[in-house]
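Incident log, structure service

09:12 report received: a user says their structure output differs between two submissions of the same chain.
09:20 pulled the input from the user's history:
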Amino acid sequence: MVKSPFARYVAGGVFTLVLAAVTTMAHGKTWLVETWGSDSLGCGSRVVPCATLSHALTLARKNDRIVVGPGIHFGSLVIDQNAHGPLSGIKLYSAAGRFATRLTPDTAGPMITVAQPNVRVGAKGKGFTIYPLGPGNRGVYTDTNGADRLRIEGNYFRRAEYGILIQGDRVQIRDNIFNEIEFRGISCNACPRGQIRDNQFHTTVDSAQADIYVSQSEGMTIAGNLFFQDTDIGGQAAGILTQGSVKRVTIRDNTFTNVDGIGVSVVNADGARIQGNILYSSGDDAMAIHQLTDDRSPQVRDNLTIFSGGSGILVDVLGNAGITGNTLVKDDSNAIHLATGSLAPDLSRNNIIETRFGCGVTNNTGAGAVVNRLFISGVTPPICNVGVGSQTTLTNPANRPSPLRVNRAAKL
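09:34 re-ran on a clean worker, output below:
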């Protein structure tokens, strides 16, 4: 049957209306907030923006966007539910970027508490300066129920006890800057399959424990982050610290410079992959891998350490670690230290260029280890066997260094 032009016009109009309705449901409404606005019943438009984010949240529905104008905005936020229902999928964006739009709570405690899934705080070019005040201050926080698929991007966190303290499945923390953090920049407890990428960590205060702390987060990826100018933290990991059975964590392509503590400390991380990182001038061991709970071997590959205050790589595990393709330059202590408990590690294709006080490879396992195709220069003695039963066999020594593969690390 051939439809008349009028019938086709009506059908097309109906389709357009349905498509518009579906699009509105998926993306929601946009609410505007300005410091000069008014918290009236009908606020949120360009003509009459709301004055506060908290009021805009009382009007919003799930999947809505709240866009915040430049200036200083006061008041803590809780993204949970309002009279319209749960606020899942809410997106908080700034109109002028992270350095022009500041969020500060009016009382001590978290600046933003998230209790719903699929929430976004900031985006590339649309983030905030988050500046919490008082004891127990936290930038972005979730309670023990967590917030799955939370995305925190493009923000600047300053002078917080915790910049981010969250739980949730598949969280993403990207392109944020952390400065003068008191305890932990990012703390992820129970964040399986999460991603922490392309963040920057500047000066931390004396009591700080770690820039990134991860526990109970199987399958976590920590990649492309930049750490520098951290202060002394009493032997804890100033860069990355994982604890509490973080299985199959990937730590790759990060850059550390002038970090006073340990660069990367991995505890109970079965099947960890630590690859392509650059660690320059750490105050303690550049990388330390401890206490595996099963036999899935960690892999430490293609990393570069320069001027570490302890060992370049310290391994104290129950599994068979793979330590291959690393380049270690002028470490204070041993370039590679196999501590008690390490079992027959694979030590292939490593380059060791001078140590200031220690050995090239120290074997303190009480067992045998085979070092294959090792390039070593300016180290005396190259091999040290410590303890009863420790025996290291050097095979096929290399005449020149193996290629260095860290070109994807974070840019300084």
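09:41 both user submissions now match this output. Likely a transient worker issue. Closing.
09:42 reviewer note: The chain has two helices and 43 strands. The radius of gyration is 26 Å.
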